[in-house]
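forwarding from the other thread:

> can someone predict this with S-adenosylmethionine?

sure thing
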Amino acid sequence: MSKVPSVIDLFAGGGGLSLGFAAAGFIGVAAIDCDQSAVDTLRDNQVISPPVIIKRDIRRFGPKAMARRLENLPKNLRRPSVIAAGPPCQGWSRVGRGKLKSLGRLDPSWSPMRDPRNRLYRSFLGYVSYFKPEACLMENVCGMATYFGRDMAAEISSEIAELGYEVKVAEIEADRLGVPQRRKRLVFVGLRDDLGMRFTFPETPPEDLKPMSRCQTVKDAIKDLPRISAGQSRETIRYRLPESRSAYLRAVRPAWMDGCLTAHIARWHRREDIESFRSMAQGATYLDVPARLRRYRTDIFHDKYRRLVWNEPSPCLTAHLSKDCYSHIHPSQSRTISVREAARLQGFPDWYVIKGSMGDRFRLIGNSVPPLAAYALASRLYMILDGDGKGKSSWRELSNTARGIV
Ligand SMILES: C[S@@+](CC[C@H](N)C(=O)[O-])C[C@H]1O[C@@H](n2cnc3c(N)ncnc32)[C@H](O)[C@@H]1O
């Protein structure tokens, strides 16, 4: 077993998974993604350290190439304890299926593997097969489980099992793990057969975040943020930490942070949209917008607009936020959510810098594994891999370390 549990993150995106693993005490030894803003984000936040951060198409950068890049690291880091991955989900998502159907591309010989995006998980298998880590973990949308009648969850599980792993697969619900958002995702976890261990999925946040076991709400996550108007574009604004902080606020905004708030920037909207938002109560959707203000068909776009509810978790954030944010209208202000609000609803701490244009940042956030959910999963793995759990870290410790980074 490697001495210090370590992880390589494939399809690392904005680093939601990596951040959760770092909080649990793993050393992030490497990450790979083909997107510039993802790679810039991973570099800036230093949760991969020593930083082997690779901007490549993984289909052209296999495990052998990665092993060569790790040769300069200390010996105990050259072979990761965990390979983690969050391959793109668009090919498996229900929205993607609707499009396929409407394009009439389905024929009897059709297979999900015809979509090249659906074959990318095989890169994960290639890395697992080469490095033979103690554990492997892959996250994807629940749509991956059954795809046009094929039990993909069973097929993928048996592919991982054939590499010598005891595999568990489950749908995890982020709102049970401290994330103020309804988000279900499919997670595969493999433990190498020779470990003789079984993985059990977490159903509550780790011990240090137990005060967050109650379902976290939009109010817990963003109520403290200053009021802004649609189109607010100043990257840094003044901020005052409320005297009494919710457990959630303590997790995402450590007290050492100064009076500056970053990325509280929001999209500009047409006057008609602002008028529509004003007409909507909390929880209202496009169907509730008065007919005179509508500009989309209500049969297709019935939930195109949705106003958040203060006392509930947010609906799922997706990469579609990069196109428009109508699915997440602020509960009481006439605008869609800001980048900071999206990051808060996804469970990114305020010190974590997400790079790129406004659209890039919304995409990286919507695509990410909520770091708090990743932390819960990674903590379970850490306890299996580190035996006595002595090196186990915590969310708070990571926040304190971050003080030296930002
Ligand atoms: C669902 S996101 C991963 C999110 C990440 N796990 C997190 O927690 O933040 C998928 C990522 O795969 C990347 N990607 C897609 N195709 C790729 C390829 N061929 N090679 C490398 N990265 C790829 C995308 O740029 C995207 O950032």
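The radius of gyration is 21 Å. thats all i got for now
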